[in-house]
Amino acid sequence: MHRLSLAHLLLFLTLAGCQQSIIVAAPGDGGTRIDWAACGAGDVCELAIPGCCAECGRATADGVVAVNARRREAQRREACPGTDDPIPCPACENLPNPFLTAECISGLCTVVDFEPAVAACNRDEDCRLRSPDCCECGGRNGEGEVVAIARRPEAEDAFANLVCPSDAIGCPECAPVYPDTVRAACVASRCAVEAAR
């Protein structure tokens, strides 16, 4: 499976004018958040919410922070103190965003939004449905599970880099079947899943 390195993907994002999609956690009081985000060789970065409650709807780059997995619990306790008596969160659905990931870049865990590289479009024909899993054959393909990506080869490579493990050796070949109740459409210059007309 041909996959782009993270460095090449970040370069692609920069050349595409999408620098704003790379968000470094800002320092909090006393630089605490930088401590959460500090990382080095061998560290794993994870996405976390910056407070007690996740944002409603699909997660956005502005609604998450990147933290070192070893400091995840410390970040959670400081971001949402008093967990023994938690505050009530809005009664809404919190949806994952398959285009967001956390990477260790220049010593800081960083939120990286791959959507500009994966889903930029000009018209509906530029978009297609895809399983959110590494392999389309046998991957999740139900309504509410599928995502929409651009048909460009570099978009396919960027998405594979995001969802496939580093040791992936290939996927079985079969024609994926997607629900006919949804379709991929270009909405505000981004591929999106919408109800079929």
List the helices and strands and how they pair.
Blueprint (H helix, E strand, L loop, with lengths): L5 H10 L6 E3 L7 H6 L7 E4 L8 E2 L6 E4 L3 H8 L14 E2 L4 E6 L2 E6 L1 H5 L7 E4 L16 E4 L2 H11 L18 E6 L2 E6 L2
Give a verbal description of the structure.
This protein has about 200 residues and is of the alpha+beta class. The protein folds into 2 domains: about 5-115, no CATH class; about 115-195, no CATH class. The protein has helices at about 5-15, 30-35, 70-80, 115-120, 155-165; strands at about 20-25, 45-50, 55-60, 65-70, 95, 100-105, 110-115, 125-130, 145-150, 180-185, 190-195. The strands form 5 sheets. The protein has a 3-stranded antiparallel beta sheet. The protein is globular. The model is unreliable at about 1-35 (pLDDT under 50).
Report the order of strands and helices. Answer: HEHEEEHEEEHEEHEE
**Biggest sheet descriptor:** 3 strands, antiparallel
Q: State Rg.
A: 18 Å
Note poorly predicted spans.
Answer: 1-33
First-to-last CA distance:
34 Å
Count the beta strands: 11
Question: Given the structure, what is the number of helices?
Answer: 5
The chain-level structural class is alpha+beta
Q: Could you say how many structural domains there are in total?
A: 2
**What strand line-up does the widest sheet have?**
1-7-6
Q: Name the overall outline.
A: globular
Average pLDDT, to the nearest integer? 81
